Amino acid sequence: LQLQEIVQQKQGLRNMFNSEEFRRSKFGRDKNGLTFEPRQIVISNGFWSKANDILKVFEPLVKVLRLVDGDEKPIMGFIYEAIDRAKQSIQKSSRYYSQYQEIIDKSWIFMHFDLHSASYFLNPQFQYGVEHGSDLYRETFEGTKKVIMKLERSMDDQIKALISVTEWWLMFGSCFPELQRVAIKVLSQTTSTTNCERNWSKFSYITKTRNRLKYRKLQKLVFTHYNMKLKMRHQMRKSEEEIEASFNQINLDYIFREDDPLSPWIEERENPLLDRV
């Protein structure tokens, strides 16, 4: 992000270092000072060329991270495809894709789970009008089978889900309760620990200031404190008309275009407070 800001201020930085006022200053006259090396970097073309190349590699990956870190809509079913499209975007725009491909693939292999494959396979958005290669189909289908066997304890339910998995979205999705149950569990998985971290921070804040409280009292304080945050967030939301006008579903066709940066999801209006357990 800092590099992107520097690139955006390219002309301003060059104008500053080349200005008559800077040259007359003690920093401009000092050939061995702190500003001499930065000036040489800014006025050279090599630095800006390399900076643009780096941004072409990292911008698609940062957009994927922003998508994954969202906490307003479940996006587990889009991660697999988002990574693939990010790699395609880098390949088209960067001259050095081959140098980064191995690093990206190694990181993806390390972070990849069968849950990602199953989420992709069970997402109906990628089952129509999308061409699947044999390798992609085999990998996602194998991951789906493993997830089904983990989530469905009954052997009969496993068999029913596996038999219907290839026809579920195409024909009668609601008529296969075994696979429907698995799909709901898989596609509802979270991809970020943001909400957990908020809850942990509330516990940490209260325990540091009131560390002699009993657990039940502590739990009530955390509950109240977190609900206050949710209520403030609810009050800051836009009107219902604005929400309906700006509501936009996840569409990876535009995720890597400049005219459609990753806009945050807008939730429908609902009770902002947690139900007491």
TrEMBL record:
It comes from the Eukaryota. InterPro entries: HATC_C_dom (IPR008906), RNaseH-like_sf (IPR012337). GO terms for molecular function: protein dimerization activity. Coiled coil: none annotated. Pfam families: Dimer_Tnp_hAT (PF05699). Residues 161-228 form the HAT C-terminal dimerisation domain. This is HAT C-terminal dimerisation domain-containing protein. PANTHER family: BINDING PROTEIN, PUTATIVE-RELATED, OSJNBA0013A04.12 PROTEIN. SUPFAM superfamilies: Ribonuclease H-like. Signal peptide: none annotated.
